[in-house]
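Tokens for Large ribosomal subunit protein mL43. Go.
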Amino acid sequence: MESELPALKEKNPQLEVVTELSRGQHPYLKGIYRNRNERVVCVKNMDPEEVLLNATRLRNSLGRKVVKLRTRHVKF
């Protein structure tokens, strides 16, 4: 991960990438958005490629809460 995170930071200068070492806790990614929402993704036992994919998904999401859509009943 030491090589992937700086590359992610260089490709996306609008992002602030901070790494911290927390002993006794699982590794995770945390996205903090402009609308003050947070998303946390656990990356325990993931390959560096999977971690980078999850970081990209956090970057691409809008930070809105997930709302379950109602199902439409259609008659045939």
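The CA atoms of residues 13 and 75 lie 50 Å apart.
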